[in-house]
């Protein structure tokens, strides 16, 4: 199905080492706190560009300059905020 993500969720769920607090925490599963983040309009949540990373996934670039997270297709599916996917994730 088609998934729609808020820019806030997309940013707070960044899987990079910088956002996750080290290489050992990269990727993984989205946390409930990520889905509870309130939408905000800041440079950190303003998407400037998205680029494909081969056939593996995508990497967004944010207005605040952050551009390190690689969101692979499996991670994006786990991050889907729709009610059906949230129930399946529990």
Helical residue percent? 25-40%
- Overall structural domain count: 1
Give the N-to-C terminal Cα separation: 19 Å
* Gross geometry: globular
Radius of gyration, CA atoms, in whole angstroms: 13 Å
**CATH C-level class:** Alpha Beta
Q: How many strands in all?
A: 3
What CATH architecture do you see? 2-Layer Sandwich
Largest sheet: 3 strands, antiparallel
Strands of the widest sheet, in order across it, are 1-2-3
Give average pLDDT, whole number.
Answer: 91
* Low confidence ranges: none
Q: H/E series, N to C?
A: HHHEEEHH
Tally of alpha and pi helices: 5
Q: Helix/strand/pairing class, anyone?
A: alpha+beta
Strand content: 15-25%
Structure report:
The chain has 5 helices and 3 strands. By secondary structure, the chain is α+β, with helices and mostly antiparallel strands. It has a single domain, classed as NE0471 N-terminal domain-like (2-Layer Sandwich), CATH 3.30.2020. A hairpin with a 3-residue loop joins β1 and β2. The longest helix is centred in the last third of the chain and has 7 residues. The radius of gyration is 13 Å and the shape is globular.
What distinguishing features does this structure have?
90 residues; alpha+beta; NE0471 N-terminal domain-like; 5 helices; 3 strands; globular
Summarize the SSE layout with pairings:
Layout (H helix, E strand, L loop, with lengths): L6 H6 L4 H4 L11 H5 L10 E7 L3 E6 L8 E2 H6 L4 H7 L1
Antiparallel strand pairs: 1-2, 2-3
């Amino acid at each position: 199905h088609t998934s729609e993500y808020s820019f806030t969720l997309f940013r707070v769920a960044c899987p990079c080492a910088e956002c996750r607090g080290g290489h050992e925490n990269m990727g993984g599963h989205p946390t409930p706190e990520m889905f509870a983040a309130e939408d905000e309009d800041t440079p950190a949540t303003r998407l400037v560009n998205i680029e494909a990373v081969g056939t593996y996934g995508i990497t967004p670039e944010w207005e605040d300059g952050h551009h390190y997270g690689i969101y692979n297709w499996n991670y994006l599916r786990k991050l889907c905020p729709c009610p059906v996917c949230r129930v399946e994730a529990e």
